[in-house]
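note to self — DONT lose this again. spent like an hour looking for the file last time. sequence + predicted structure for the chain T wanted, 191 res
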Amino acid sequence: MSEYATPTETDVPPTFDQFTDLQSLADEVGADYRETPNDHEGKDHCEADYAGRAIAGIIDEQGRILLMVHEPSGTPLMPNVKVEPDEDWLPSALAEIEHLTGVAVEFARTERLRRVDHRVEGSEEVFESTTHVVFRAVPVAGPADRPDPQLNPEAIENDDVEPDDFIVDWFDEIPGDESGMVEADARLLLE
């Protein structure tokens, strides 16, 4: 176990439905807080019927971050999973991230809490809000015992995504355009 990891406990509530005041919670645990609008073509979107996402910033012993890069667009993604409102998010997220990437990880700490306000394009009206927990994680195994990361095609929920379009690897800097939400999360973890 890493000296920075506490795999069975988190510094935030175990279920997203217990997250009531994200700003106060972020202040309490020393995490960054953001509010982000997310515009969609309609009310059916990728987080519909979910409480939000658990997003893992997995940092190895060399200070590199594990990213999934969509090669055709150059877009980097951090491993992440959708969370049910009453789901005990941490054990589920750790297991699903290992299933997704092949790398077993442990929770280290919460880095960012984000309220995402979902809107229909062209409207300022928020029809739903979800929560994102961006957390720092570390690999369970050292480099000699750890498998190379790879995207598990069976873990992909989106039929429009081609698993072969992704490279999963360790990066010491963020590839591509650094202007988006994912890039801001990754920068926070690499600082």
